[in-house]
Amino acid sequence: MTAIPNPRVLILMGSDSDWEVMSEARKALTDLGIASECHVSSAHRTPARTGELAREAAGRGIQVIICGAGAAAHLAGVVAAESELPVLGVPLASSDLKGLDALLAIAQMPAGVPVGSLAIGKAGARNAGLLAARIIARSDPTVAAAVRAQRQRMAEEVVARDAALQGKIS
Fold first, then answer.
1. Tens digit of each residue's pLDDT (9 = 90 or more) over 11-26
2. Does residue 164 lie in a domain region?
3. Residue 32: which residues within 8 A CB-CB, separation 6 or more?
4. DSSP states of the chain as a string?
5. Number of Cβ within a 10 Å radius of residue 109
6. Would you say residue 152 lies in a domain?
7. Nearest-CA neighbor of 3 among 34, 38, 30?
């Protein structure tokens, strides 16, 4: 995956097989006009590279890091240990425990190494993108307006679905 100009969010995953899930974070960010870059980097197989990506992110303009992490979720923890940026962990269902192990590992990071934990899988990845946008929106009025517009669209969709339901049951 190639870097794009002026990314504000770094999305990391331990394997390219995680892309099916983690692409949801990228889609959410893209929909809100936020540039991101994505990389495969492993806490275990490429620890030096993972540390470098985390340490250098802020200096490159990255504001939030999203990590897709399975099993013991070491990727999210290692990245949080190496960076002062907010780290959002997306538990991946990559083991026999179907992501519960990763969810608990992310939620149980040691004191001083915070990682925000999202839901397991695609919904968690999408929400990680949306949460990263809300973090960025705190200091960027353009992103704040995009977040407000996205929330308004969701509300309008619910009202439209209710109207459709009322038409069916009346």
1. 999 999 999 999 999 9
2. no
3. 129, 130, 133, 143, 146, 147, 150
4. ----SS--EEEEESSGGGHHHHHHHHHHHHHTT--EEEEE--TTTSHHHHHHHHHHHGGGT--EEEEEEETT-HHHHHHHHH-SS-EEEEEE--STTTTHHHHHHHHTPPTT---EE--SSHHHHHHHHHHHHHHHHTT-HHHHHHHHHHHHHHHHHHHHHHHHHHHHH-
5. 19
6. no
7. 38
Domain span including residue 124: 9-140
At 63-119, the pLDDT tens digits run: 999 999 988 889 999 999 999 999 999 999 988 999 999 999 999 999 999 999 999
Residue 153 lies in a domain: no
What is the β-pairing status of strands 9-13 and 64-70? Answer: parallel
**Residue 31 located in a structural domain:** yes
Q: Is residue 118 a contact partner of residue 132, using CB atoms and an 8 Å limit?
A: no
Domain count, the chain: 1
| Gap between the Cα atoms of 163 and 45, Å rounded | 52
Q: How far apart are CA 61 and CA 160, in angstroms?
A: 39
